[in-house]
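I hope you will forgive my troubling you with a question about protein structure. The matter concerns a single protein, recorded as an amino acid sequence and a row of backbone structure tokens. Please examine both parts with care and let me know of anything in them that strikes you as inconsistent. Thank you for your consideration; the sequence and its tokens are set out here:
***
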Amino acid sequence: MNSFDSEQQHIFVETNDIRLHCVSQGEGELVLLLHGFPEFWYSWRHQIPALARHFKVVVPDLRGYNDSDKPASGYDLDTLSADIRGLIDRLGYTKAHVVGHDCGGAIAWNLAQKFPEKLNRLAILNAPHPQRFVQEMASNLDQIRRSWYVLAFQVPGIPEWLIRQNLKDFVKNVFQGQAVRKGAFSAEETKIYQTALEKPGVLAAAMNYYQQMFHPQRLWNWGQKLEPVTVPTLVLWGEEDAFLSHKLVEGLDRLITAPFKLKLVPNCGHWIQQEAPQTVNRELLSFLRTSSPSLALA
């Protein structure tokens, strides 16, 4: 893999009764990068060296993915958030900047609401607030059409079996096929993702994320009053996301009682940090390195 950096370290960290594989580089304030479905740490390959010039960057394989533990349970947002809260503690920090994409973004949103004392700043990349996502899935036909796979994933056992039978085509379609900037995914890179998804237990765990989000008990909880996000927040959004409707970014300011910036990235799809890495790196560095939130978000 020519994307590996000699300064990157591969470490294992015990947290919340599981072991997470992480890639680490740099020194300074802690920045955690949380990947989405069906990725692993590698989806942040363009961000790690850029951010590591100024921060200690730690990128976990989330519970169930790649080389992290794959328990049968614990794929609800509260447990996943506790994984990351424990990771911050075990790395020797009291707080972190947390950046999340897709499912990693859902964890980041939840972390900011449940454990705001653990966050310095929050950055979200093409990841709807989980409660808003569930609401749109219940009422927005366009979002239902875009997210048909989420409904298909609710059937235990069958989705991962079907994906496994056609894994090469699945990976090529979900990444290169759905990207706006096709050059973001070479044959070598899609093969790297395929290899990570072939590891025993990964696909079942990945399906579990979606099954837990739409579990009847969780759906009841989504109807409860939202706790606002109280940390400075940046949302970066590829405008031509094939999976997520534009409506998901409407009204986000009502969920955040802190400095907030929304930046739409044109001619870019769901895989924003891979399709537009220079833009993402520039925006993240500007946001995370500015001492005054008002200056960062002006």
Summary: The chain is about 40% helix and 15% strand. Strands lie at 9-15, 18-25, 30-34, 56-60, 96-101, 119-125, 233-238, 260-265.
